Every structure is written in C-alpha cells, then in structure tokens.
Amino acid sequence: MLLGQETVRIQSAYAVGPIQNPIDNDYLNADLSLIFKHNCIRCEEESLIELADGQAAECRFIDRVNDETMELDLSDFTLNKNERLFVCATFKTAEAKIVCVRTFDIIGKIWVNGELLFNKSGPFRFHLEPGEHSLIIEYFELRINYSLRISDYAFDLANATDLMDDYFANWVDQRAHIVSENAYVVGQDKYAIYPWS
C-alpha cells in the first residue's frame, strides 16, 4: 500500500488468529515481543506464527473488501471471550510526512513500526520517514462497520472543508490520548497503579 496524498484504507493484509490472548498481553501492554516470538509481518499465506507464550497461530492472507464500507472484510472471523485477531500490513511513503489515522469502531490497539499509537482511543497522527512501515492492529472485538483511514496530514489540512477543520482541531490537534501507562514504585512497599478506565 503506497501512501501518497489521497486517503487510503487497508485492503489487503495478513490475519493472525484468532488466538487465545497471551497472558502477558494485558490491556496496558505496549510491547509486541510479549505477543509474537518473531516478526509477524513476514508471514506467508496459510503459515503458522509462533507466539511468545508458545502458541502457534494460523496466518493467512486476506484481500476481500466489504462493498459497503470499502474496508477489509473481517466477517470470516469470530472472536470468543479472551481471543484476539491481529491484522498485519505494510505501507510505503516516498517522502517524510506527518500521517493522520482516523478510526471508527476499532476496539483494540494499533502499532506502527512496533510503537503502540492507539489503544481503543481515537484519531492520531505521527511522523514517518520515507520507506516501508509496518502496521499491526490487535482486535479485542470485531465490529462490522469499523473504519481505518490513513492520510497525509498536510494535504488534509490544505484541502480541509470547514467540517474537517473542526474535526482536526477538536479530535487531533488539541487532544492527547494515553495509550500506555506504567505502574511504578512510590515507596518501598507501596505501588501506585493508574489503570485505564
């Protein structure tokens, strides 16, 4: 997938799972090495991916698109209690740019180049250097009408309508999302834990 100026959606990727959620992958986990033993992006269709906890997960290539939403069709997958589905894709950019990701109804996490940028939060933006980049989405739940749109932030701003100006101002520019929090020692025998609510 090549990211130019126009908004793009993921229309082909590798799906890993569904899998039983690894015990170390709790709600606050931001480390992919606690999930995957090796890099899951290099998987081949119908192969098995080894997870950090010793499980083996099916990995298959998917490229069917939902005609109504124009998003990758995940209707072949069902998640039971405490199961996860990972969707792994790559995208390229020819130049350095700030990228905006707009999400709707995605219940899970999103990593770009191994960095957790979304944890059931909201739209976000980040800087990309030229080259190929990995995108991993972890689904806690699957929704039919989800949406994930990736766009060139400068292009969006230059061509924004009044409605888009308000969207960027209220949901991207002036908001901060905490996607990962840590527990830390306050005293010798006291711990302060600030969980997500």
Layout of strands and helices, then pairs:
Layout: E1 13-20, E2 47-50, E3 56-62, E4 83-93, E5 97-104, E6 107-112, E7 115-119, E8 124-128, E9 131-141, E10 147-152, H1 153-158, H2 162-173, E11 184-185, E12 191-192
Antiparallel strand pairs: 1-3, 1-4, 2-3, 4-9, 5-8, 5-10, 6-7, 6-9, 11-12
Percent helix, as a range, is under 10%
Q: What's the average pLDDT?
A: 78
Radius of gyration (CA) equals 18 Å
User: Which spans have pLDDT < 50 for at least 5 consecutive residues?
Assistant: 182-197
Categorize the overall geometry: globular
Distance between the termini: 35 Å
Strand order of the largest sheet: 2-3-1-4-9-6-7
Beta strand count? 12
Q: Total number of helical segments?
A: 2
**Which secondary-structure class do the elements indicate?**
mainly beta
Helix-strand sequence: EEEEEEEEEEHHEE
Largest sheet: 7 strands, antiparallel
